[in-house]
Aminomethyltransferase (Microbacterium hominis), 368 residues
Amino acid sequence: MSEAPRSAAVASAFTVVPGAVVDERGLAHVAAPAREQRELVAGRALAPLEDRAVLAIDGVDRLSWLDSITSQALTALAPGTSTELLVLDPQGHVEHAAAVVDDGVRTWLIVDRSRSAALLSWLSRMRFRLRVEPQDLSDEVRVIGGTSEAVAALEPLAVWRDPWPAVAVGGWGYAAAAPHPGESYDWAEAVVPVDAVSRLAEAAAAGQQPIAGWMAVDAVRIAAWRPRAETEADGRALPHEADWLRTAVHLDKGCYRGQETVAKVHNLGHPPRRLVALQLDGSDADLPVGGAEVFLDDEVVGAVTSVARHYEEGPIALAYVKRTVPVDADLTVAVDESRVAAAQEVIVPPDAGRTASIPRMPRLSRRR
């Protein structure tokens, strides 16, 4: 099980569902995480994303303003088009990530609830004299996830369709795997009124609508190598290290905070760490937690960011390791007082950057 982020407890509407387990992130599972993953991927289940918050940006300058202060080119964003942005610190480290969709009148940002207050505060300070009005709508709306077709049936106020793993205009993909494991990743997040969540909980309690908890959502995301701010933005992460340039960074847009580092690392160097996917030894019932140390022999070379037990692949994880760790090295991960074997799959190659010549690397065999 992934380590739940430290945040305020969620008052979940889904405690009425038989078998529901609720924790700090909201609905964790309904007693069958593997089945929930299958239902989610098949488009039958919906996932209440109670660890998400929704910010709205109103005002005629909203898109050009966001363009000027974040990593994404947004001035010409067409209504209904989904994209992603990052807020970086002056050294280029990821502070916030947001799913972005504009409806022609308002820009919707879906963010991690634990970071929403800090992001809203920063946005409010950056308004200056522009005609923009950022606000937190989390008391009025909720977020429900699932396949694009599944969430469309909710009659949402807005829908963000995850562009991952496509390389957006102005972006750059580092992962060399062919095919990318996220090619079949169909994920969307719908912004709905609060009462829609109550109706979903009632339908799930009556056995009329399958639902899935955050454990299932995480497992599907990790299998697609999809980074998330709550876990992969660890305070010193550069977007290059998680292959985030493909969906969240426009390399040819104007100046923004952290752009100098983004350009320098991409054009002239290589990121100091690289995100890897780990296939964990499944013989142990316990899984590592977020932050667990990754070892090469007896040397600590990285740390786990996300962990899950996938319904097809078994125990899997994402982790940052030093760039210099050989791509074929046998790694181990700390679990309690012991370690488990971890076979790495290359997400970001050691020589990642504009000047790299990246060969097509075959993926390791998947356990079925």
